[in-house]
Amino acid sequence: MNVKQVEEYMAYRKLPRTMRAKITEYFEHRYQGKFFDEDAILGELSEKLREDVINYNCRSLVASVPFFAHADPDFVSEVVTKLKYEVFQPGIKP
C-alpha cells in the first residue's frame, strides 16, 4: 500500500474532508510514515528468515514481559511468530 493509493481511494469515494484526515492520521500512526505491505514482504522469505525478522522486530516487547525472562528461546520464538500486529489509535475504541 502506498500514500497515493489511499489518496486515490478517498477521492474516488468522495470521502468528506474530516474522514480523509482521520484516515490519513490512522495510516501515519499505523505505518509511522512507512507505507509497505509487511505481510507480503515476510511472505516471500523462507520460514527461518521470516521467524528471525519477527523475533528481531518483537525483541523489545518480549524483553519487557517477565513471563518470557527465563523462558526457553524456542518457546518464545514459537509464541512470537503467532502474534498478530494490531494498531489502535489513542482515544478510539476498536
Automatic annotation (TrEMBL):
One of its GO terms (biological process) is sodium ion transmembrane transport. One of its GO terms (molecular function) is voltage-gated potassium channel activity. One of its GO terms (cellular component) is HCN channel complex. This is Potassium/sodium hyperpolarization-activated cyclic nucleotide-gated channel 3.
